[in-house]
């Protein structure tokens, strides 16, 4: 575990003039790093403030945000511990980089989407919203937290071999049961970021309620 939250490798970019929207918390997939999703800034919210950390777990040399027992089966104890560690980083980095007043919207892909879901469920006041791409169900029995009105977008592929549609619907149902306002943005592809879905996410972000 990281003892100094800000010692985690990360990229922080300030907002450019004219962008008053939320900061983007970019959370990469397995094998990515803090630079992997930076290009989404100009797609989703040009000039937005950005906080992009690296996962601190290695799986065969590939960075991840938490351990898994095998593909599709999470080490839920480690998931919870790493989500708590990431929350401490987000709080410290938000203060250090002047992002607290903007609030953060998590944008996660695959492993990054799954740690974003865990953040929502373990630290429900931390984020202003979340866009989850190629997202799985993080917990067999999710924490009973209050997510009233929290905007969450879920975008999974119809041909994703790792995530049947029923599992996407279970994730969405779990979030809705806790009060989240879930927007389902399916696409016809596989375990990937889809350009049309990203464009719809741009519209979703621009429509988020002001703080």
Automatic annotation (TrEMBL):
Leader sequence segment: none
GO terms, molecular function: hydrolase activity
Gene3D superfamilies in the record: alpha/beta hydrolase
Keywords: Hydrolase, Signal
Sequence ranges assigned to domain Phospholipase/carboxylesterase/thioesterase in this UniProt record: 23-206
Pfam families: Abhydrolase_2 (PF02230)
SUPFAM superfamilies membership: alpha/beta-Hydrolases
Listed name of the protein: Phospholipase/carboxylesterase
Species: Friedmanniella luteola
């Amino acid at each position: 575990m990281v003892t100094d939250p800000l010692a985690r490798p990360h990229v922080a970019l300030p907002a450019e003039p004219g962008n008053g929207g939320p900061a983007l918390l970019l959370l990469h997939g397995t094998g990515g790093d803090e630079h992997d999703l930076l290009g989404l800034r100009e797609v989703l919210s040009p000039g937005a403030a950005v906080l992009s950390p690296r996962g601190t777990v290695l799986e065969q040399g590939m960075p991840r945000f938490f351990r898994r027992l095998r593909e599709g089966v999470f080490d839920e104890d480690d998931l919870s511990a790493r989500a708590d560690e990431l929350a401490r980083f987000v709080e410290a980095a938000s203060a250090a980089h002047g992002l607290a007043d903007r609030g953060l919207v998590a944008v996660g892909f695959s492993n990054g989407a799954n740690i974003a879901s865990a953040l929502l469920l373990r630290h429900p006041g931390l984020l202003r919203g979340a866009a989850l791409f190629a997202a799985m169900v993080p917990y067999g029995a999710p924490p009973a937290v209050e997510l009233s009105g929290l905007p969450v977008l879920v975008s999974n592929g119809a041909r994703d071999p790792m995530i049947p549609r029923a599992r996407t619907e279970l994730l969405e149902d779990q979030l809705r049961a806790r009060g989240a306002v879930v927007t389902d943005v399916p696409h016809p592809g596989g375990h990937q970021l889809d350009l049309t879905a990203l464009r719809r996410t741009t519209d979703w972000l621009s429509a988020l309620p002001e703080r």
